[in-house]
Amino acid sequence: MKALLDLIPVVAFFTTYFAFSKDFYLATIVLIIAMMVQMIYMWIKGEKIGPMYWVSIALVLLLGGITVVLKDEIFLKWKVTVANLLLASILIIGDRVAPKPILQYLMGTHMQLPKTIWHQLAWWWAGFFIFLALVNLYVVYNFSTEVWVNFKLFGVFGLLFVFAIVQSIWLNAKLPPELRDQLAQRPQTNPSSADAADNVTGSS
């Protein structure tokens, strides 16, 4: 349910853009409103709003607001890159200075893994976020706005899905047999890689 809720602002932006003659600025306004409504709904329902969701809202309000006021699409288009570079920085710095990796703080109650695996997972995700940030810039400066809008909805989630599968295969190969058996016997508390991404990133 939460995964579907997280998709609402992006789908609202995508739908508005193509339903109203590819009006990027109207779609941006709808995106801002959708994220605010989503946040209010989560607050009313008593759902936890993670720190990265607040960051995502702040970036949409700031960059989306500048986009609408200045009538310049580039600011909102940079949001994907800024958000992912920020996430990568948090994971890399946290891996260096925190007592334990950031991902272990977020998922340690669900998955009991060796500390070395947590460190490697942090770098996996940091590398993916940097890759996503660079791919976004490539699309922004080499393709039309229409292509970027499609990339924002389908490309980002498609890349995340592929990465999650690859990382799950890697993680399964890295785990000792006893840990694999333990996680297999407790599927209800074994979040997928996609769940991990959701915990880290919040709404896109």
Characterization of this structure:
The chain has ten helices and no strands. With 204 residues, it is an all-alpha fold. The protein has one domain. The radius of gyration is 18 Å and the shape is globular. The model is unreliable at 187-203 (pLDDT under 50).
Short description:
With 204 residues, the chain is mainly α.
Terminal CA distance: 16 Å
Count of individual beta strands: 0
**Biggest sheet statistics:** none
Oligomer: single chain
Mean pLDDT: 83
Give the helix/strand class: mainly alpha
Count of separate structural domains: 1
Number of helices: 10
Rg calc: 18 Å
SSE topology string? HHHHHHHHHH
Low-confidence stretches: 187-203
Overall geometric form: globular
Strand content: under 5%
Determine the fraction of residues in helical runs and give it as a percent range.
Answer: over 70%
Characteristic key phrases:
204 residues, mainly alpha, 10 helices
Helices and strands in order:
Layout: H1 2-19, H2 24-44, H3 51-70, H4 74-77, H5 79-97, H6 102-107, H7 115-142, H8 145-174, H9 177-185, H10 193-201
Helix pairs in contact: 1-2, 1-8, 2-3, 3-5, 5-7, 7-8
